[in-house]
């Protein structure tokens, strides 16, 4: 199959997790964990653009050859880094609903302590991880999620949906919907925070005051809306927005289970 794919001009799927490791007797002093630790330091400090194999070798006081012994290229290194931070994500069990952060909006129903609470807890934990490591956002969907931490999370997410009555494609669609919502929302939040830091809505209202006055006649509804919302506590608005979206997603999934 691999030869046929190459003959057709298609690149066969590759992953650091499917490539056999070299024999331990050949292993250099530098370990895979040390490489991933150093890569994470660069990624968290400078993002994806700050990571290169050369800079990583310099940070480790080691030649690139030692790094390439463990990983074939930067893509494999990013696979390892993404799986490492996925280890920070925890997924409540449906029967842990009382302990999970079950406040997923005003539509909490009788299932708020069951699968909804478990899935909501996972969503919030994934969001928190993305805020700590915003460089992960472009990697979701680009890197195969087959490492030990990612597979543990995905298996637990399947368990979190226990009681929702979903199987097969329907379950896969629901899992993907939750992940897509969280990645999109958290990625947008992290991007804004990374650029604008601690600037509040009130700061923006003051800075944009003359501009809003200038467009108020053409866009009265928009300017009135901005002034109404942005005077509120920024962090509170962001949290409320995320909770509202998560509640709507969960409501939609639940509605489909009742058809």
Automatic annotation (TrEMBL):
Residue ranges flagged as DNA-binding region: 52-71
Region described as Disordered: 1-29, 91-113
Chain ranges of the HTH tetR-type domain: 29-89
GO BP field: negative regulation of DNA-templated transcription
Membrane-traversing stretches: none
Keywords: DNA-binding, Transcription, Transcription regulation
GO-annotated molecular function: DNA-binding transcription factor activity; transcription cis-regulatory region binding
PANTHER family: HTH-TYPE TRANSCRIPTIONAL REGULATOR RUTR (PTHR30055), TRANSCRIPTIONAL REGULATORY PROTEIN (PTHR30055:SF151)
Protein name per the record: TetR family transcriptional regulator
Lineage, top ranks: Bacteria, Bacillati, Actinomycetota, Actinomycetes, Streptosporangiales
């Amino acid at each position: 199959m691999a030869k046929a794919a190459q003959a057709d001009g298609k690149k066969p799927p590759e992953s650091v997790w499917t490539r056999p490791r070299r024999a331990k007797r050949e292993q250099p002093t530098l370990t895979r964990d040390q490489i991933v630790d150093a890569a994470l330091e660069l990624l968290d400090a400078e993002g994806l653009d700050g990571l290169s194999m050369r800079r990583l070798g310099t940070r480790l006081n080691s030649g690139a050859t030692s790094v390439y012994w463990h990983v074939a290229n930067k893509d494999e290194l990013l696979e390892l880094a993404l799986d490492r931070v996925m280890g920070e994500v925890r997924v409540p069990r449906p029967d842990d609903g009382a302990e999970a952060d079950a406040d997923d909006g005003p539509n909490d129903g009788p299932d708020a302590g069951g699968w909804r609470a478990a899935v909501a807890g996972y969503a919030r934990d994934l969001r928190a991880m993305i805020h700590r490591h915003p460089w992960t956002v472009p990697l979701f969907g680009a890197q195969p999620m087959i490492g030990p931490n990612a597979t543990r999370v995905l298996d637990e997410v399947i368990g979190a949906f226990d009681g929702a009555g979903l199987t097969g494609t329907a379950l896969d669609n629901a899992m993907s919907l939750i992940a897509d919502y969280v990645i999109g929302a958290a990625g947008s939040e992290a991007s804004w925070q990374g650029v604008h830091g601690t600037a509040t809505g009130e700061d923006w209202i003051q800075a944009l005051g003359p501009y809003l006055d200038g467009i108020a006649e053409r866009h009265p509804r928009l300017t009135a809306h901005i002034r109404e919302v942005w005077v509120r506590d920024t962090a509170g608005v962001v949290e409320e927005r995320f909770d509202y979206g998560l509640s709507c997603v969960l409501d939609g999934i639940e509605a489909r289970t009742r058809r």
